[in-house]
Amino acid sequence: MAEELALEWFRDRIDALGAGGQTARLDTADHADPLVPAVQAGEVIRAWLEREGIPRGKTVLVLPREAVVVRRLRLPMAPENDLPDLVRFQAATKTSAPMDSLILDYLPVQQRGTGDGQDVITVTVDKDRLARMQAVCDAAGLTVEKVTLGALGIGKLVRAAQASDLGMAGPDMVVYQQDAQLEISIFDEGTLVFSHALQLPETLTPESLKPLNSDLTRSLMALSQVHPEASVGRCFYVCGTPRREVLELLRQRFADGLTVVDVSRAAKGRSIAGYEALAGTLLPASMPSLSLDLLHPRQRIEAPDRRRLYVAVASAALLLLAGGSGFYFYSQKSRLETEVADLQKGINTQEEQLQKGKPRADAYARVAKWKESDAQPVELWPLLQKHLPGADRVYLIEFRVVPTSGEVAARFTGRGQARERADVDGLNQSLSDQGFRVRPTTPALGKRDPDYPWQFELDIELPRSQLTDKSPPPAKPVTKS
């Protein structure tokens, strides 16, 4: 391991792994609470590290899956140096938050064969939240050098300990369990292409494991939507103390393709149970395909401005040519300097005008992109309505249709009530079977409607390929007063 300290930054605790293999856990929420002064939270962390005997210094912050937003974007082919700007522009069309309020980095995805575009996996985090982390670490005497994602550390650990070809020959799944927290990741084309997190109940039964089984299915379906011909052949289970119930479920899904990862080889004999993501993060940086840094995200490399150098060279040449005559020298020098100043002023004026017109040009480009879609909300609603169950099982209390451009025709969001959790899972499964892209959410019991106790959020996307039949279906009751 490199001489660094790794901290995994949860909302309710901080996990630490020192360069010497020391591990510690601090149960606190002060570090994530903006109402607690950063200095106060930092002092708590400083005292904790000193008490645990963990040296402070260069620090890598590791974010769990729940702390970031991960998306896959399809982009047109572009030079590598233009890719950062193109990714940010495309990401702005997929999020409701202003890009200025987010920090974004991405992982390029190598394409199978030849195609007319390229894919990237974007990872975004709230800028204020990241600034809070840095302020707390500064107060604790820590020098933050990198902010990355825990799923990438797990991928590095599996490659070092079990499968050096993880995600190389085909899609591979990694299931990482840390107490009741579980992350599902898929690696393909050498990098992370999918990641999802869920919380397991304290008591594991076949019934309580149904959400995990459903999330495994959704993960595989998400992969098939991008690569219909691809299938996951191997699953790697990473857990300090493997749970028998989870193992049985994974064996049912993957049979001989399941491997319980022994991390002892990568850990060099140290006990890192529960700290596997940190151990993988501190492995030597020899895997660029799994490298992501939200503190130093990928940026366009600007070419140096050599205009002043060119002006200086031209002036020197003119001075040498005019050296034989004093009057000619001074007159020519004065004239050329005036021309250079005028040219520079003109260049500056043009650049200012270009900068002033850039927001309008960007707006025109977005409007043109938007107009590519001819779908209207009144046309889009029936395409979803015909797949919804009746109000005897599920009803919506809030609904919104947002037409979009590109390969997605519209995004449907809302909230609703259901009689049983199975009704929510069945609705999501039905919509997914009909070609909708379902963003899985976890329903929760509420008190709003005792007859429909399960509250859920609806968040789906309608691919443009589904806009084949625009005739409205018979109306079904989907609302309840």
Automatic annotation (TrEMBL):
Coiled coil: none annotated. The chain crosses the membrane at residues 309-330. It comes from the Bacteria. Signal peptide: none annotated. Keywords: Membrane, Transmembrane, Transmembrane helix. The keyword Membrane applies. InterPro entries: ATPase_NBD, FtsA/MreB. This is Uncharacterized protein.
